[in-house]
Amino acid sequence: MEKVMKRHIALVMVMTLLFAAGAAFAEQASQVIPRAKLQQVITDFVHQKTASLGLETSIKRISLNNDLKLPAGTVTYDVLAPDQWEGWGRANLALIVRVNDQVEKNIPVNVDVDAYGAMVVSLRALDRGDVIGAGDVVLQKREVSATSGKFYANVTEVLGLRARTPIRANTPLRSEYLEKVPLVKTGQLVTIIAENQFIRLTATGRARGNGGEGDIVMVQNLGSHKEFPARVVDTGTVQVDF
């Protein structure tokens, strides 16, 4: 009986040692990725996405709360974002984690990003038809997510344009708010210039639309009564390339 007990105790000890060795091996065969590392992967992705836009970004929230335990091996990451996400505001991302090129985790991540960019802002209230001068606007840093549509980021882009609609003071200027001052108006008599490197011809025509400098308008040649597109050069002059 005593021999049986000794054998039983020895067997238990061997099993305990084997279990401990297996646990130690399993521990050595895994790795832990800190939450801070995962958050940095998301942060780097956001900064890369907005780098070419000339914006300053500030991440308000990343929904990653725990460290990540993975098998041993080389870890790589991919971040997937909705096609329509521009890199700021709220979005649902996916963090794909691979070990030795095999997908181990697909983690949903909610982010909230503030983005700031230089915008042309009105210094005073503008009435419809007002032409923008240097004293009417200023360049300021504003939150992009608070301004929808294409905004102007250079003061020189808006100088000489006119307000298409009334604009309140302290308003970021968007492309749909402004238009070129028409140099040619519908029904106006214009001088048509047609030239190339060898010849220059002129004729009198009538504009069939409004247009600012560089715009294309339809004109009618009063001699031939033919209509064709021409580029507005200045007040009362359009040009046809041939």
Automatic annotation (TrEMBL):
Broad class of the protein's primary localization: periplasm
Pfam hit, one: ChapFlgA_N
Keywords per UniProt: Bacterial flagellum biogenesis, Cell projection, Cilium, Flagellum, Periplasm, Signal
Residues of the SAF domain: 117-179
Signal peptide: 1-26
Gene3D superfamilies, alphabetized: 2.30.30.760, Antifreeze-like/N-acetylneuraminic acid synthase C-terminal domain
Transmembrane segment boundaries: none
Localisation: Periplasm
Family: Belongs to the FlgA family.
Protein task: Involved in the assembly process of the P-ring formation. It may associate with FlgF on the rod constituting a structure essential for the P-ring assembly or may act as a modulator protein for the P-ring assembly.
Protein name (database record): Flagella basal body P-ring formation protein FlgA
Gene designation: flgA
